[in-house]
Amino acid sequence: MGSASFMGTQILVVDDSEIEQRVVGRLLQNGISDVTVTYASDGQQALDAIAETMPDMILTDLRMPVMTGLELVENIKTRGYPVPVILMTSYGNEQIAVQALEVGAASYVPKLALEQILITTIESVLALSRVQMNRQRALSLIDSMESKFVLQNDTSLISPMIAYLQEQIGTMQLLNGSQMTRVGVAVYESLTNAIYHGNLELDSELRQGDESVFFRMADERRLEPHFAERRVHLTATLSVNELRFVIRDDGPGFKPAEVKDPRDEINVDRLGGRGLLLIHTFMDQVSHNPKGNEITMVKRVPPRRNEP
Predict the structure, then answer these.
(1) Which of 1, 23, 62, 223 counts the most CB atoms within 10 A of its CB?
(2) pTM, full prediction
């Protein structure tokens, strides 16, 4: 058998049978150049080993004491370990294998076919895994990124766009999950304000009574040519120091100085000021242009733990 070209590959074999470990280890040593093979007897031992040294791949049995292969796959997914897992299945484990594949395993090899397809399966999975890992490494090196969006007056477009921005923020490792959610809420509120109060010129006072009147008028104005041609423009600049969002609508604007401070206790319960309250609370800097049709929001990026 020829040797695969994945030099310096580290593979963790997880099986409670020492005989099975030796069989798999021999196949790996014969089939992959410069491979390092380590062993664990159950899922918990495997997790302990991963915590010390992240392997390039895990080959695991399904039925083991202490922690099964399925539980191992679930734990790897929950902890966010970027290591692919290939299942080694025996007759009668088909349903468990399907469950493991559904929760995150990359592939499987029947134990009866290890000699025939184990190495080729490892080759294909490692190739795909390394492409993705290299992509993530490259994206993590981005120092800054600017995206520009132009939206129609359709609020259903907002959530997918924010999800895209949150994905970029996560890839650049700028904020944690809760911080990203808060930034997403602030951007969402700013965009809805730009659509409803900017482009469609709806007075927030309409929301203090029956909100259905407010949304009915929004639907009507979306169809009127004077309002329908207006757009919302978002420029999002993501950098290692800050996140900057500039949102501009095509409406007539307003006088920022006349806007009631949403942080005043008297205004907290007003529906019309809820969005501004969230924006000012979640962002570090908030400002408007003189015309009042553009808002700039800044969120500072916390220093990374490994930085001085």
Answers:
(1) 62
(2) 0.60
